[in-house]
Amino acid sequence: MSGVVERCHDGDTCHVMVAGKRIKVRFAGIDTPEIKQKDGIRARNFTEFLIKGKTVDLDCDGTSFDRITCTVYQAGVNINAEIVRKGWAFDSKRYSKGKYASSEQEAKAGKIGIWKDDQLSSPFCFRSPKAKQCLRDKAYMP
Q1: pLDDT confidence band for 67 (50 / 70 / 90)
Q2: What does each C-alpha distance from 41 to 10, 53, 106 come to in angstroms?
Q3: How many CB atoms lie within 10 A of CB 131?
Q4: 3-state SS, residue 84
Q5: Which residue from 8, 9, 90, 117 could staple onto 13, CB 3.0 to 4.6 Å apart?
Q6: For 54, which DSSP code?
Q7: CA-CA-CA-CA dihedral for 92, 96, 98, 99, to nearest 10
């Protein structure tokens, strides 16, 4: 399905008008900083810079809370991968099966976007700071 991006709530969730109906799209397989987290607003702004007001193609595979999970394409470009490659998201391996791991490594190596921060906390650890894995490594991402 296709639609026009109206706005983004954060770096991995946008509102898209599809056939006259607004749907909330969660970008499958990636996780950007939460809006209240360091770099959360910058991640959202990057996603909006890429796709706000543009027609996107959605390859959807499920739901997450009140959102449809999709791989988002704009002019044939996988936007999910682009957000990770440009350093504004983690590869959420649990859901992507490592699909964006090389893009994440590229961003880390270049120290771009969120990867500039030596004290980086993953969105998962921001949401679950007492998780056993997060107590050992704040950048842990399942």
Answers
A1: confident
A2: 7, 18, 22
A3: 13
A4: helix
A5: 9
A6: S
A7: -120
